[in-house]
Amino acid sequence: MPDFRIMIFTLLFALINLLPAQKMKDYEKLFSMPEIERRAVKKYIQQNEKEIKRYQEDVHIDRGDTLDVNIFVNHGDLIVEGVVKGDVLVLFGDVKLENTSRVNGNVTSVNGRIYQDPESIVTGNQIETNIKNLFPAREFGSGYNEDIMERYLSRYTKPYGQSYSTLPVGRRKSELLFRYNRVQGVFLGISFPKNISGKYNYLSFHGFVGYGFADKRTRYEAALDHWFFSPKDFRFEIGASLYDKVESKDYWLISPLENTLSSFFLNDDYLDYYQRKGYEIRASQNLTVYFKGMLAYRNDRYTSSTKNTDWALFKDKNRFSDNPPIDEGRMRSWYGELYLDSRDNKELPHSGWYGKFSVESSTKKMKSDFSFNQYIFEVRRYQRLGPWERLDIRIKAASSEGEVPLQKRFHLGGISTLRAYNYRSLRAGGNGGDRMILANFEYNVHPRLFHSPISFGDDFRYIVFFDIGDVWQRKDVTPEDGWDKGFDHLKLNKLKSDLGIGFSNASGRFRINFAKRLDTGKKPFTISFRIRKPF
User: Above 90 in pLDDT, residue 152?
Assistant: First the structure.
């Protein structure tokens, strides 16, 4: 192990300072269910002169029933067809107000949704809120810590309540789209997010439409999905999509927002693009709240895209590189995946699992211009090691058989992969590889872990990371074809690797990285700035 790595890890582990046991007990009491109930009742039930009727399961107030009480439901759903003369509070559940219902007070759902028929009557306010709002930051002052809050509150929000981890549930508004890249220039449009509205609406239309001012083309995707059976225990879904869009295989490396800012300001476009036009028919099954399987048939026409603009606000003299061509043609394929997601937050996770195994198969027998099979496996773990430290791990591997088209090959190096290497510098001869292996490790530390009184404060986190991986062509190492061939040559000390340190804000969204390659003494550090987590 190089001296640099020994120094970093020795420094971090020598400064570990565990929380006192009494402090942990205080958090257990503060974020206990009785305290959550007390705070919710105090804040949202205002008709104190009335009795509070409590329920611990689903409740149905029938048509013709009149209750002169406040209603409080914990971990259950409430359906109202009659009259409630007090306030309504539902904790970790939904409220459905039918057309004959009347509530003479406020209706509040904490970590749930409110569905109201237009003919129902509510004389007070309707509030949809989150459990975190019961613990305002001003109450804690400088001791406020979002990581600690998420750790303790997540135990109440994990079971099914307001959403599936593997499916967007609830109402989401349409959003304006703004993108900038070297193919489309400014792209303006509107997106229609997928909505599965709780337990009562079974059909969802979603997609987007927009116009690229550089390539002068309208792009779109129109999708329709219908789900069946219980949303809680057994969700089966069928759907179809029709699309004409500019796409990239590199969205796992950088978000559209990050790439838009980089392209617009700095002439750095990190994505390679191609046109994909066709349709998809799919079926999916939720096996649990967090685990989902999907099978789809795709019929696509792939076409190369060309660079259509060189403009950027700064560095305009450094032109965009040309957008590389792909293997054009008609691709008919079967695509299947198994998808696991128990993360506490999809964009900025602090705990949980993410896993995905996908298979795509295209053959001449399907009247496709391509013949290949591709297998991609990825697993991530976000593991708390204590109140002030966390370990994030990602392992990703891919293998293919047959003649893999350019748009399905892999590259590594740079952002989100091996951070001390130049972007896409690992290209397996220039055109990309059909084999890949990548592992990333991040040790995330809160300043309170250290004894030292000198720190940047609670708004910062310190990160030590290690990346290792490589990409290659199967034919370069063995003449045998097959998804399991072409791995025998791998040696741990031959893989590309780097080590680095980083500094981020509390959420992890904004960070600066300093990375060093471990295979050479040249170019001692690579510095990068990100506005998203690398994984």
Answer: no
